[in-house]
Amino acid sequence: MVKMTDLNVIDRPNWCPGCGNFGILIALKGAIVELNIEPENVAMISGIGCSGKVPHWIRTYGLHGIHGRALPVATAVKLSNNGLTVFTVGGDGDGYGIGMCHFIHTMRRNIDMTYIVHNNMIYGLTTGQTSPTSEKGVRTKSTPSGVIEVPVNPIALAISAGATFVARSFGGDVKHLQKTIVAAVKHRGLSFVDVFQPCVSFNNVNTYDWYKQRVYDLQAAGHDTTDKIKAFTKSQEWGEHIPIGIFYEVLSPTYEDELPQIKDTPLVKQLIDNIDISGLMDDFT
Amino acid sequence: MVKMTDLNVIDRPNWCPGCGNFGILIALKGAIVELNIEPENVAMISGIGCSGKVPHWIRTYGLHGIHGRALPVATAVKLSNNGLTVFTVGGDGDGYGIGMCHFIHTMRRNIDMTYIVHNNMIYGLTTGQTSPTSEKGVRTKSTPSGVIEVPVNPIALAISAGATFVARSFGGDVKHLQKTIVAAVKHRGLSFVDVFQPCVSFNNVNTYDWYKQRVYDLQAAGHDTTDKIKAFTKSQEWGEHIPIGIFYEVLSPTYEDELPQIKDTPLVKQLIDNIDISGLMDDFT
Amino acid sequence: MAINRLTWKIGGKAGEGIMATGMIFSQSCSRGGLHVYDISEYPSLIKGGHNNLQVRVEDREIFSQVKGVNILIALNKETILLHKGELVNGAGIIYDSSEVIEPKEINDNIRLYPIPFNNIIKEIGVQGIMKNNVALGASIALIDYDFGIVGEVIKDNFKRKGDKIIDENTRAAKAGYDYIKNNFKNDFEYKLEKTGKPGRMVLTGNDAICMGAINAGCKFYAAYPMTPASSILHFMAAQERRFNIVVKHTEDEISAINMAIGAGFTGVRAMTGTSGGGFCLMTEGYGLAGMLEVPVVIILSMRPGPSTGLPTWSEQGDLKFALNASQGDFPRPVLVPGDIEESFYLTQVAFNIAEKYQTPVIVLSDKNLAENHKSTDKFDPKKVTIDRGSYADPADLAASLDTTFFKRYKYTENGISPRTIPGMKKGIYTASSDEHDEEGSISEDIDVRIKMMQKRARKMDTLAKELKQPELVGSQDTDANADADITIIAAGSTKGPIKEAMILLEKEGIKVNFLQIVYLNPFPSEKVAEVLGSAKKTAVVENNFSGQLADIIKEKTGKDVDKRVLKYDGRPFYPEEIFTAIKEVVTHG
Amino acid sequence: MAINRLTWKIGGKAGEGIMATGMIFSQSCSRGGLHVYDISEYPSLIKGGHNNLQVRVEDREIFSQVKGVNILIALNKETILLHKGELVNGAGIIYDSSEVIEPKEINDNIRLYPIPFNNIIKEIGVQGIMKNNVALGASIALIDYDFGIVGEVIKDNFKRKGDKIIDENTRAAKAGYDYIKNNFKNDFEYKLEKTGKPGRMVLTGNDAICMGAINAGCKFYAAYPMTPASSILHFMAAQERRFNIVVKHTEDEISAINMAIGAGFTGVRAMTGTSGGGFCLMTEGYGLAGMLEVPVVIILSMRPGPSTGLPTWSEQGDLKFALNASQGDFPRPVLVPGDIEESFYLTQVAFNIAEKYQTPVIVLSDKNLAENHKSTDKFDPKKVTIDRGSYADPADLAASLDTTFFKRYKYTENGISPRTIPGMKKGIYTASSDEHDEEGSISEDIDVRIKMMQKRARKMDTLAKELKQPELVGSQDTDANADADITIIAAGSTKGPIKEAMILLEKEGIKVNFLQIVYLNPFPSEKVAEVLGSAKKTAVVENNFSGQLADIIKEKTGKDVDKRVLKYDGRPFYPEEIFTAIKEVVTHG
Ligand SMILES: Cc1ncc(C[n+]2csc(CCOP(=O)(O)OP(=O)(O)O)c2C)c(N)n1
Ligand SMILES: Cc1ncc(C[n+]2csc(CCOP(=O)(O)OP(=O)(O)O)c2C)c(N)n1
Ligand code: SF4
Ligand code: SF4
Ligand SMILES: [Mg+2]
Ligand SMILES: [Mg+2]
């Protein structure tokens, strides 16, 4: 049995005291323990941002890459060794800003892995600029006169892009989050979880309280997760009441399912020292 | 009055005979004539692809930039001279593949300009690889065993991203297309038009006939363009019956509206030789 | 007793307002007519890690930090442990009296000034975060500086936050001041006195770049945040309405440079700024601007790579990258300011070159230059005249046909073609990333290709001819020594410590000349070759691992420098390090 | 009468099957034991623009095109007008008899073979598109070659399309063949005869790269289409199920390289391929791989820039870009194959270097090498042994703690640290783009930074030591001339025309040595300096504007070559051009 301590590292996370990332890290570890996945069979992939540091603070294999590019890395990790449980973690800027191209294309690929976005509606690590999820009008270092564009709606985008598991949770509710992550990992195919994450240093609007006063659980409310239109409709709710939980879940073949190349043996375990190209050379003669 | 011939250039487009781009070019010119916009006040911005060559074959100002990056260029052209009518034209690979990040972020910006995608569901200029709009299972040079992921749905994505004018048309129906482009240009804010464009060289599935047999006009069918959920629902229709026309249109302040910097004078017309930074220097003393 | 010559340092956890307090100190010194140079260190995290800021003050112009701290404000114990080694004899530590400092922890010659921060704060009824103001005030008392100036600076800095905040900050500082005056003898060895001369600006290289850009008429700034270029975005954004600039925080750096290109194409002076990782994403657009012949200014502010590297530290590791980024050969002017004044003036020059030569121009800075403050005389906003380059002659335009494109890429002797912008009647053309003929139409013709490559390249020749070769100088910018023992060649922010080191070397009787490379491209090969040919000895001083400038020098002149003085731990050079290295070369070869 | 020594050319509109027809001709010659080298030209559009393909055939190994066409198949009139200047005396033109050719349009010494394509096609009842087969057959008759071989090649090529297609193609070719035999005298001066020796492969550099990659165990290929690298994607995709490779056409090049990094990190041999514009987008990932020490092979296939440039033509304009891409200093091995064999073997070497040195490796090719075909002996798949580098010792792993990360970045003498991959118990670590310590944890420590930079750099030193310096050769790969008049230095695809030019020069009594640079980095400075020091004269031959290789040589050795022979119009060198340029240098300096 995997224990919480198996996932601990010696260094303490250097996030600001009170940062919402702490709760997410706990839920993430909790989910891995609950699912009983050996740490060496987990790959934790991230880009750059406060949230991107997660792989350094959990004892699994990790890759802390470049800003916005974690999903392609994770995709290849999974395709190279489909025996691994692969997580991608990162910020809203990382995933919905600079990484938006990969976000949409990964959603339509249905690789069996889990993507968790620490959505604090701000650029934390670069000390407080607007993020794609910042609300219209918000004043930040890079938008001192207020954000002009409307925020992205990651839930609606993921649904529109073809994701097969789309959920939202809240870092301030570790239980809900852990449950959601467990469901995400169990889902066969790409699972996407947008997580509300209070940033105590640069976002003094969307605080723990702000969320607590607004979030309600879709599952408790009896939401039908199999209906795409209803899921989309729910994704449009914002303001006084904000839904969390699973918006949409549907089963369809994973990307790996359609690759006979890795049906029997993961790529990484295939022998490469006896490849025979003589037939290939004949083709050119 | 602007005439069709004012927009002609000496060179003939070097697209394959029968290519759907010809119809789009005619409709585009027709729309500019119909709207009576002086050619020198039009900026036609494109990336790379067969479709990306449009600026070379219409006598307006043009910029034929790099693959997938036309929208940021166009955005800045408009913000630099908001007196111009700005078009972005390009392919499905250009716009929905490599350019997806800019696509989503431009949709939420509501700059008053028009984006037309020549959607041939294939990479034309690079001789026939899969595009993000290729249907699942399609065999192309880059996917000889068939495309695995589900296609992107540009209409659903644009709606989800916050676009204020979302339409689809068909290059085989120049009248419909011209009407749609005219409506797009007249719309105050970002207008997005996905155009079905037969590629006679590399896409022998989605042919003129294929489209003709399937498309029906949303406006003729009495679609309510102001309802986002209905628009999204319509965006999900595919197969035997495929809607064209305006899916969604809503009025909201443009990006430019919220820039007092350019309220009176476009940036390009502001004098720069008498800027006084002495107060700024005082701030640092 | 040392008057007007000290280094003041404050350290504590990230998020405790170290930077703001340091800024107040620097400004206070500057307003008293003193010169300051400050440098800050912070890790890539928001709160809790160790931050520090060090201000050097003198009554002559100073160009870098130096070794040896005279007064250390330790907001926590860690600061003492980390920095006690930097303290000189007679230095003082201001710290929280609740911390226990064992005698063995600290050198006998160091004076301790424990202060009951919490009590004081409680007494005067302000927030705990004001601790650093108390400490600041205490330090002012210790060095016997004019508290009135400090009060004014606090007032100005918190103007926008309202009277209450000003009052609290001032009271906190005053309480610290009084505590020292009341509880300690006035025998601290290091003092500051105001000079009565007017104050200077206290600003960073990034501030200067922004002022330069604004003064040059930059109307469009698009960028994605990246240390150490983010503060340019913040500055420009803060000024967007005052100076009518459109400032856009874009979705990524690809968008940023393509927007800048769009603006440049439309006739607006446009700029973008980033660091290495973001510049990677801009390289394709960089080449595009080169091909379209669209003016764009790119601020590339270096930090240590490879990859994310040390994101909040400094390096000059992107010289060769900047010079060779993007496929193919095209004009790539690269300008390297060495200090804050040059950051201001060269940014303006960059805009002029960009428009005159219709090409992207890189201004290469680094974190040291970008983020450290220096007291600086006000700039001369009229020194660099705006040159918008060659727009198409209206007569030519009127004469051109209605059916063809304008010859936007006309072959000319100097390589520069007449420019039109959208909106100009009869100036219509398409700017194409494909190779194109004079009218901008795509062409694969051999003749067109050759002529167009040559035309573009000629712009660089023209520019090279226009530029003066750099001048060799002696210590303190005097004429070069005819019989110098060694010549230092360098580019960028190492200029400051080099200037300081030259003073030290001169004192030891070592005569040093200095050749600053401001244009990395077009490179002043002639002058550099001459110097390398005639100097007794030569050295480069670079903040990178491999000696990139030395490599470039060799590529351009065929000559090796005798010594590569390199530092690549993310920290700037101390003058003393350069002094030692150069002395070693001179004395032992 | 010239036997087994001719150049055959076919031209027409894009989309008319020019390439396929040329391929049949080349393969037919090769199967007859002859050597072929073909080169195609096409514009960046799909149909209608002018395409042409030229095949040179001899009974000795040949390495490039030469000037002078002996037989021209003109599928349209434009082809005649464009290429008539290339025809030698006695050459023949096969063309549609419905085209009118005025006597003044064509030289007297050219023979005309008008063929009623349409009639023939109608008669035998095949599609119009088969016109080129008719022409092909006609050319076979003219040169008196064995039609049986052509029939077999057609059969093999259309195997997958079914018997009907095979039959139609064969009949069309036969009809053209017969038409010539029946209507013209058998007096054409240029003939081909099969040699009875076994046939060779006819393939491109890209084909060879793919075979090399597959043979090296590449299991993951991610790319975004871009000429001239697209055909690698097509090849790998076509073979994905046969060789169990995951091939991904990604959303962009950024994704492509990051996927390759993900695969490399997981322990799978991975590759990506692109051209300049796409490589721009990969530069950030390139640096990432350098920092993470993850093996990745990047094929950078050059075409003329800047920007989109001439997308379907060739250039060697990205040498300095490849060497300096991405911020900071890190090991950047760059390998440059000069021909098809080297494309095969060096790709395998690249995988070995990537894994052994845990670093990204660039294989630099160009459109000429990537897309032109050459008849080539079968490769030796056993020549390059797979070397997977140093994985962590299981004993070390077992001994390591459960609470710490594995020392994945251990400081070692040769710079190479033991590697673990996900799934390995106790090998757990995080690969970080931030500077990190031996365990991969983020560190901003001065000492760690310095040691880690040095560790990474040492890998390059170790590699440099492992490599042999290149050898100087004489004409036809003989030993170098002791008293050569000149030494040519070059890298990449110019090798072919240089080898041909050397033969020509030798015939004129000019003795030439050749030094091929295969490793642009680590650069063989020692050997190059020695050659530059001892050669009577030196020249580089490069397909770019500025002489990038010559610049690199100067940076590395301090020495100028005497002459930069440059061509940058997108076309490859003709041996004759090199001959002339070199002769000029030798005779007039
Ligand atoms: C290419 C590139 N551009 C910019 C940066 C600088 N940068 C680092 S993190 C970050 C954004 C952080 O915001 P987010 O992704 O929301 O993460 P958070 O810190 O809020 O968790 C940026 C812009 C970078 N590292 N790389
Ligand atoms: C960065 C970059 N990658 C790849 C290419 C090669 N390329 C040119 S056009 C194109 C795709 C064309 O497809 P699409 O955008 O759908 O346009 P179409 O030709 O179908 O109109 C590609 C991949 C490029 N020019 N730049
Ligand atoms: S800046 Fe915000 S997101 Fe980053 S560690 Fe601090 S609280 Fe968390
Ligand atoms: S390849 Fe397709 S899209 Fe391109 S010009 Fe030909 S028909 Fe049109
Ligand atoms: Mg964030
Ligand atoms: Mg397309």
From TrEMBL, chains A, B:
Q: Which InterPro entries match?
A: 2-oxoacid:Fd_oxidoreductase, OFOB, PFO_beta_C, THDP-binding, TPP_enzyme_TPP-bd
Q: Which cofactor does it need?
A: Mg(2+); thiamine diphosphate; [4Fe-4S] cluster
Q: Which organism is it from?
A: Candidatus Methanoperedens nitratireducens
Q: Where is each Thiamine pyrophosphate enzyme TPP-binding domain found?
A: 48-195
Alphabetically list the UniProt keywords.
Iron, Iron-sulfur, Magnesium, Metal-binding, Oxidoreductase, Thiamine pyrophosphate
One GO molecular function term of this record is:
iron-sulfur cluster binding
Full protein name: 2-oxoglutarate ferredoxin oxidoreductase subunit beta
Q: Which Pfam families match?
A: PFO_beta_C, TPP_enzyme_C
Q: Which Gene3D superfamilies match?
A: 3.40.50.970
Q: Which GO terms describe its biological process?
A: cellular respiration; organic acid metabolic process; sulfur compound biosynthetic process
Which segments constitute the Pyruvate ferredoxin oxidoreductase beta subunit C-terminal domain? 199-263
From TrEMBL, chains C, D:
Keywords (alphabetical) are: Oxidoreductase, Pyruvate
* Pfam families hit by this protein: PFOR_II, POR, POR_N
A molecular function annotated in GO for this UniProt entry is:
2-oxoglutarate synthase activity
Record-level GO BP terms: response to oxidative stress
Q: Provide the catalytic activity annotation.
A: 2 oxidized [2Fe-2S]-[ferredoxin] + 2-oxoglutarate + CoA = succinyl-CoA + 2 reduced [2Fe-2S]-[ferredoxin] + CO2 + H(+); a 2-oxocarboxylate + 2 oxidized [2Fe-2S]-[ferredoxin] + CoA = an acyl-CoA + 2 reduced [2Fe-2S]-[ferredoxin] + CO2 + H(+)
Annotated Pyruvate:ferredoxin oxidoreductase core domain ranges read 484-578
| Quaternary structure note | Heterotetramer of the KorA, KorB, KorC and KorD subunits.
- Specify the protein name: 2-oxoglutarate synthase subunit KorA
Organism, scientific name: Candidatus Methanoperedens nitratireducens
